[in-house]
Structures are given as structure tokens and as C-alpha cells.
Amino acid sequence: MFPLYMRFISTGTVCTYARYSCLCLPCPCKQVDYIQRRGYKKKWAKNEGSKPHTVHALNHMEAFYKPVFKERWPSIRISLLTTSKYCALLNNYNSENEKVEKYLTDLGTYNAMEKAKLARAKYLEKENQQIVTEQSSLPIESLIDFPKRPSHSEVDENDDVNDDDEDVKEDIQPVVGKNTSLYDFIPTKRVYTDKELLQQHIARVATFDDSLLEVPVKVIQEQVPELPEDLKFFVYPKGDISKFPNPKMKHGNLLGYYMMDAASLLPVIALDLQENDSVLDLCAAPGGKTLAMLQTLKTENLTCIDESWSRLSRLKDISKWYIGETPSSMSVSKRDGKLLEDPFYNKVLVDVPCNTDRHVLISEDNNLFKPGRMEERLELPKEQMELLVAGIKSCKPGGTVVYSTCTLSPAQNDGVIHAAMDHLWKETDIDTVVIDISYLRPIFKDIFTFFPKTKYGQLVLPTLSSNFGPMYICKIKRIR
Ligand code: SAM
Predict the structure, then answer these.
(1) Where would you say this protein principally sits, based on its record (predicted)?
(2) Is the dihedral of CA 372, 378, 384, 387 positive or negative?
(3) Which residue of 23, 75, 185, 433 could cross-link 218, Cys pair, CB 3.0 to 4.6 Å?
């Protein structure tokens, strides 16, 4: 191995072992560390600027994900760098879907929803959760003690009272004019370079420190919902990395199945769609989750919006190939979701743009880790929070919102949930709670690997034997 790596160092060619240039990445065989100690640092520095964006992305993950996922990280890392696994979502709108079902089982796959339903029954039996307790039938508002927030009018009134209240005035200690002067010069302990400041900013945006937020987020239990009866998806067993053939119009009038990451179905399952629901898909394109919602056959009123024309046209294509034509119960429009304010819906899906961990590790195209897209990347948590806040505002009191991403970034997952709730508490009269959906773990344990240490939502971790995700899902209920 060693002479081979020496050759890489001198020629700069790509390592066949790790897929990436040995000059930029620690190689699994550890020879690079050895070479580095022998005085090759300069070459590393020289190549720093020309690193592929995928390598920047991996280095970023090494720095910020490794401390979070610890001993799980090497397995997650290799899984992210490996081809992901797909499921086949059965198309209920196809006229001959029994034939498609048979075709899929003949391939060696199984209907994962059937298995999940059995696991749900077992879980309920164990937890004895079928019995609706008296307490859970009470209105949620009566069970939750929300921290009191000053309303805007109260703040104004208090301001007036304080103006007349001499005692309160005396308590205010003027800072200027006592021991310090406005003209005192206090030298900073250290002057940071632009690069250091940027690094600090990147670290702030990439990590989630809930000690900085003031509002405690309430997490409540709900009864384990039924799994959608008509949603069927087929997967190869754990450890089997066979691929599905591309769907063809072989059976019936429309495409028989849609290939997608099975973990992307969890946000739709968590939404628990019911007939008569009025549903908003706030970031809908290119439409994988929209199609999954349609497959539940419970979308009598579905509004899909996205701000990208080109991605919306893909949603329309999917609708044409799988449904035939856009159903009259579904509307599709190009809009900025952040501007929505009116509570028209009782189920809202907010599937936000995110780091897209898999994409940034394998493709240079449209890579968020391009230096030119740094600002966009650093703005993501803010953008995600604004979309989630708009989703919650669009939801009627009593309705639910599901927030999802396909990143492992704690800042873009739990961090955004907390920041949105903090914002709503301070800036509006809206009250929200997080709904505990940890029941997804025992129900889907045969298909997905979940991270046990999230704070609010559930996170599917990619593993080699079950290479789905990453997918973060959090369910929020609007109370007021
Ligand atoms: N839900 C989609 C699916 O399952 O196929 C994937 C959604 S993708 C992760 C995020 C989408 O959000 C992108 O299509 C992007 O155009 C859209 N988006 C970004 N900012 C938006 C905004 N302000 N309003 C509406 N859509 C937005």
C-alpha cells in the first residue's frame, strides 16, 4: 500500500481506495497520516483551494456530524458515500396494480407496509395503547401549561404604568456616567480575521445549541395513528442491495410504481391524512411526497406550492405519468411559501430545502458546498425556519404540521424546530406543541435505523444494510 500512496502524493492522481484524492482526505488505510508526518503538509495546503466541492462537503460533515453521531459516524459516512436504497411505491391509480404487486414480489421484494402494520399491532399490544384514556380525550389546551407571554397590548400598558411608577424608575441603574464613560476605550481581547469570523459563523449555523433559546418546547404524546390503508411500498430485504428495474407501462395504463427513498414516506405517514382533510404541501416539487400523499387516496383537497417553475414542471410530469391528469382535488402553483399567513389547512407538510447530504457528497453539479453558494448555505436554517413558521401560520388551530429534511444536520432539524417555536412565541399569539412520534421507531425498526438521540423529531440514519435516509421528521400541533 505504502509505495502506491507515495505515487499518489507525487502525481496527485485519485486514490482507488477511497474514491477521493488522497491529498485531501484521510484515507481509510491510514497511510496518509503517515505521509503527512513525513513533511508533506505543504502539498496538502497547495491543493486546498482546488478540492472538489464533494470533498468540502465531506470535510464539513467530518467536523460537524462526527461529534454528534460519534461511534455511528464511520458507518453513516460510508453509507452516504454508497448508492442509496430505493423502494417501489405502488401506484393505486394504475388499472392493473395487482399484476404490478405480483411482479414486485417476484423480484424478491416485500410489502413493507404489511410488515409495519404487524409491528404496530405488536407495539400497541405491548404498550397497551389501544385503550383511549380519559385524559387523552381532553382538549390538549387543558393539559398544557404554556409559559405566559406578554401580549403586545399588555406590553404597551405596562410601559405606560412604568412611566408613572417612580419606584420602578429608581431601580434602573444608569450605566453611563457611573464608573464608565462613553469615551472609555475597552480593547478587545483578540482581533479575529475574516476567515476566523467566517469559521465561527459556519460553526454556529451548523450546530444546535438549545441553551441559547428561551422558550421551553412542549412535547406531548398522541395515540398511535393507523397506518394509511392504501399506501403500499415494496423493499428488498435488509442487506440486499438489488435495484428495481425502471418502471415501464407494462402493466396497465400508467406507470406501475414510483422509485423513491422509502424514508421519504415517513413524513407522509406522520401526517396521518384523513378524508376531508384540507392539505397544504408547502415545498412540493418535484413531487415524490405529493405522489405518496395521493396514493393514500385521502386527498380530497390538496394544495401544492413551490417557488421553482422547473421543479414544478417535474411535479406535473409525475402527476401525468402516475395519475393521468392533475386531479381536480389538487391545485399546483408557483409561490413563495414564506409569504403564506392565512390558516386555511388542517394538515401541512413543510419539506424544506436543506444540505441534501447525499447529493453534496456525490455530485459536483449544483453542489451547495461550491464557494459561490456559501451565503445560500449559511442562510439555510433561517430560510427553513421562515418556511416552517409560514406552514404553522397556514395551519388551523387544532391542525398539524410535519417538518422534514433529508439532512443529518442538527441545526437544520431540531434546531429549526426550536427556533421556529421560539419565534412564534415571541412574535405571535400562536401556541404550538411537538407531538412525540417515537412510535415510528418500533413500527419501522425492520426497515429503518433511527438515531435515538434527537430532541424533538425522528431521524433515519443511513446504514449499509438499510441504506435509506437521512430523513428527519417532526410533527407539530397548532393549539391556538
Ligand atoms: N417535497 C418534495 C418532494 O418530496 O419531492 C421535495 C422538496 S425539496 C426538498 C424543497 C423544495 O422547496 C424545492 O423544490 C424548492 O424549490 C422549494 N422551495 C425553496 N424555497 C421555497 C419557498 N420560499 N417557497 C416555496 N418553495 C420553496
Answers:
(1) mitochondrion
(2) negative
(3) 433
